Amino acid sequence: MSDNNPVTAIILAAGKGTRMKSKHAKVLHEVFYKPMLTHVLDSLHRAGINDHIVILGHQRERVADAIGQYSYLPVFQEEQLGTGHAVLCAESACAGGEGLVMILCGDTPLLRSETLERMVQCHLQNGAAISLMTTHLDDPFGYGRIIGDDNGNIYRIVEEKDADSEQRRLTEINAGVYLVDRQFLFSALKQVGTDNSQGEVYLTDIVRIANDEGLSVRRFFHPEAIDVLGVNSRVELARAHTELQKRRNRELMLGGVTMYQPESVFIGPDVLVGSDVLIFPGVQVSGASKIGDDCVIETGSQLHDCTLEAGAVVGAYSILRGMTLSHGTLVPPQTCQFGD
Q1: Bridging pattern class, strands 290-291 and 172-181
Q2: pTM value?
Q3: Is 19 in the active site?
Q4: For burial by CB atoms within 10 Å, which of 17, 99, 196, 299 has the most?
Q5: 73-76/51-56 β-pairing
Q6: Which of 19, 118, 247, 321 is catalytic?
Q7: In whole angstroms, what is the distance from residue 147 CA to residue 158 CA?
Q8: DSSP labels for 146-160?
Q9: Domains in the chain: how many in total?
Q10: Pair (280, 208) in one structural domain
């Protein structure tokens, strides 16, 4: 990001995630080998947004431990009184005069860095006080509906429980990613009340306040809904895992890796894979594994923290952990080996 328009990201990660039916904090649930919160932090970093504030609440020590390798400023929300309250807790941490604040949720592991970059660019071009990411859903139940016009302006957001029957028929929804002028943000949040069905401080109310003050609120529409939706259930968790698997495999195949039945192949995000590698169905490679050029990994094999030098072949249904295979090594099928 430009030094003239610094962006601070506030990541909301304090909630329990009761719909997950779990004793674990929602953002700690793993998606494609990593807690979903780390995917959000990675996307921000790739987008050039490196000033991170993470709102912690439920199981905050465990969440903080899970992201200990990242550079961020923790802010504690002692009571979960709504998204607006969560952001307001970060006011002192976000002090520093002018600039932009990007607000997003820690349960959105499919957000792409390119999408965040484009959002910042559009915001700067429009000169709006707020840019809000939206998308369309065939079934928008549970999401806030967008009230706006055909020129890209947004006038307000109506939450599902506060919407009337006509508003519930709208299919454009709030994707929960905001880009806001820093000074306006905290001034507006202090005006937000709790006069709603949840008795919470709605972050969405800053849209209405901006319009009341004659400020511009602009739509940043993203057509791929799956990229921007949060994970609220085990079903959505599985869907997110599958999507990240597809993205990873596509990247590898475009880079010179052959996969038979890629929908059944899982290659972890930190695995390094060389060119002309052949991967059969049902293979899983995870951890800090390294696969050299011209290697072959046959059906059903599982490798974790392994190094395969060029030309190594792993026979079908083998399980290897912490192993290093030298150049041209042939591992017989159904081998089970564990390194030190």
Answers
A1: unpaired
A2: 0.92
A3: yes
A4: 17
A5: parallel
A6: 19
A7: 7
A8: EEE-TTSBEEEEE-G
A9: 2
A10: no
